Amino acid sequence: MPRITHPRPQAGHQTAFQVDFRDGVAHVDTLHPERALALTQHGFTIEDDEFVDLDTLTVAQLRKQAKNDGVELPSKAKRDEIIDILSRQPAAPIADPLGTQITED
Q: Per-residue pLDDT tens for 48-85?
């Protein structure tokens, strides 16, 4: 499901290119390539929100995921151990529409 970020986010509701944004972010089921091109040409950011199912990844893919996430793994860690370590990692803080990071105190 593509996630589109407005280049000038505002609190509340706004519409651009027939896409409804809430607090500067829109989630759409599908995105036509021409609309995606128009959005990117106007400064919108388009990302795929991907859910990674760790149980379907190989050990090499799990190690790569850990490296990308900045997680150190024991060199002899087995697949189940790696999945357990990655599963226990806290989710990254989400930036608010104004660009400041929201963190837990």
A: 766 678 888 999 999 998 888 889 999 999 999 999 99
62: how many CB neighbours lie within 10 A of its CB?
A: 21
- CA-based nearest residue to 17, from 9, 49, 37: 37
pTM for this model (two decimals): 0.48
Count of other CB atoms within 10 angstroms of residue 67: 11
3-state class percentages of the chain: helix first, strand second, coil last, to nearest 5? 30, 20, 50
Helix runs in the chain, H state only: 33-41, 59-69, 79-87
